[in-house]
Amino acid sequence: MLALIALLCFACYRLVRRSDDFFVRICAAGVMTWLIVQSAINIGAVTGLLPVIGVPLPLISSGGTAIISTLMALGMLMSFARHEPGAQAALTRRRRPPRRTLAVMSRRRSTP
């Protein structure tokens, strides 16, 4: 879990470093800081280093508000990453993903 959070924060840091737009840099840095602080508080509370104050781990939440706000922030970062320098060229260069539709799955026939 810690490795996934570290990977997510690294992706935010990469977006901050590679972006040309100042607004994108500020928003990505803010979301990155938010995720790092929220994770550090939760991990500190779980290990007993900090008092328990009820801050959930990002993306691992039992409540609806924390997960919705985190997903909205990550969606914003994904939108920013699509407009990162070189991202459009990389997206057009990649091969087309395989079709993931129900047409490739075997169909079960119902008997009357």
TrEMBL record:
UniProt-listed InterPro entries: Cell_cycle_FtsW-rel_CS, FtsW/RodA
Membrane spanning residue stretches: 28-50, 57-81
Pathway: Cell wall biogenesis; peptidoglycan biosynthesis
Reactions the enzyme catalyzes: [GlcNAc-(1->4)-Mur2Ac(oyl-L-Ala-gamma-D-Glu-L-Lys-D-Ala-D-Ala)](n)-di-trans,octa-cis-undecaprenyl diphosphate + beta-D-GlcNAc-(1->4)-Mur2Ac(oyl-L-Ala-gamma-D-Glu-L-Lys-D-Ala-D-Ala)-di-trans,octa-cis-undecaprenyl diphosphate = [GlcNAc-(1->4)-Mur2Ac(oyl-L-Ala-gamma-D-Glu-L-Lys-D-Ala-D-Ala)](n+1)-di-trans,octa-cis-undecaprenyl diphosphate + di-trans,octa-cis-undecaprenyl diphosphate + H(+)
Location of the region described as Disordered in the Swiss-Prot/TrEMBL record: 89-112
Family assignment from sequence similarity: Belongs to the SEDS family. FtsW subfamily.
Protein name: Probable peptidoglycan glycosyltransferase FtsW
Organism: Arsenicicoccus piscis
